[in-house]
Design goal:
Radius of gyration: 25 Å
Strand order of the largest sheet: 1-4-3-2
Number of helices: 5
Helix content: 40-55%
Largest sheet: 4 strands, mixed
Shape: elongated
Order of helices and strands: EHEEEEHEHHH
Oligomer: single chain
Distance between the termini: 65 Å
Structural class: alpha/beta
Length: 208
C-alpha cells in the first residue's frame, strides 16, 4: 500500500496562479481551496494531489480587501470553492469562470464566517490592550535601567510587571476560549475554576 504524504508550504497572493499552473503542468489534480478566518485576515489553503502526495499551499493573512486571481482557467472545478469563499468570507476572486456574483448562497447576513460574538470581541480587545500595556511597561523599565542608578529596582519592577501582564494575558486567553464554548459547558468550567481557587486559598491560609 503506497504511503500517503502531506506537505504545507507558504504561498504569496502574487504566486497563487503561477503555483496552480505549475501543479497542473506536473500532473497534480486540484482537491480544494480551504478558507480559515484568523486575526490577521483569511488564510487560503490550496490543496493539490498526485500519487499519494498532498501539497498544501498556504496564503496566510490575506487582507479582506485583497483581490485573488482565480485558478478556474486551470481547474474549472475551483469555481465552487471560490464562489463559496467570496460569499462566506468576503474574499474577492478575479476572473472566475462561473461567477455567481455573490449569490452562490442565500445568506441572512453578509460574510457570516467573519462574524464573532460580542464576548469574543471583548476578549480579543482585552488581550490586545494587555499586550500593549506590557510592551509599554517593558520599554519604561528598559529606559530607566539605561539611565543608570536604578538598575536593580528597574529590573525587579520590569519582572513584576511582566509576571502580572503574563497572568492577565493568560486570563484573557482563557476568557476568549470560554466565550467560544457552549454556555452550559463554560459555566461548568468556571464553577470548577472557582472551586479550585477557593481550595487553594484555604490551603494557603492553613499553611500560614
Amino acid at each position: 500500500m503506497p504511503q500517503f504524504k502531506q506537505d504545507f508550504s507558504p504561498l504569496s497572493i502574487e504566486a497563487i496562479h503561477d503555483t496552480a499552473a505549475a501543479r497542473k503542468a506536473e500532473g497534480f489534480r486540484y482537491v480544494q481551496t480551504l478558507a480559515v478566518n484568523t486575526e490577521d485576515g483569511v488564510d487560503l489553503v490550496y490543496s493539490f494531489m498526485k500519487d499519494g502526495r498532498l501539497d498544501n499551499e498556504v496564503a496566510s493573512g490575506v487582507p479582506r480587501d485583497a483581490v485573488i486571481p482565480s485558478i478556474t482557467d486551470l481547474y474549472l472545478e475551483a469555481f465552487v470553492f471560490e464562489n463559496e469563499i467570496h460569499d462566506l468570507f468576503g474574499v474577492r476572486f478575479e476572473g472566475i469562470a462561473i461567477d455567481f456574483g455573490g449569490n452562490f448562497y442565500h445568506l441572512a447576513v453578509k460574510e457570516p464566517m467573519t462574524i464573532i460574538s460580542p464576548e469574543q470581541k471583548a476578549a480579543r480587545d482585552k488581550a490586545r490592550k494587555i499586550a500593549a500595556a506590557k510592551a509599554a511597561k517593558e520599554a519604561k523599565a528598559k529606559k530607566a535601567a539605561e539611565q543608570g542608578g536604578a538598575e536593580a529596582p528597574a529590573k525587579a519592577e520590569a519582572e513584576k510587571a511582566e509576571t502580572a501582564a503574563d497572568a492577565a494575558a493568560k486570563e484573557a486567553e482563557l476568557e476568549a476560549k470560554l466565550a467560544a464554548m457552549d454556555p452550559e459547558k463554560a459555566a461548568k468550567v468556571r464553577a470548577a475554576m472557582e472551586a479550585k481557587a477557593k481550595k487553594a486559598a484555604a490551603a494557603e491560609r492553613k499553611g500560614e
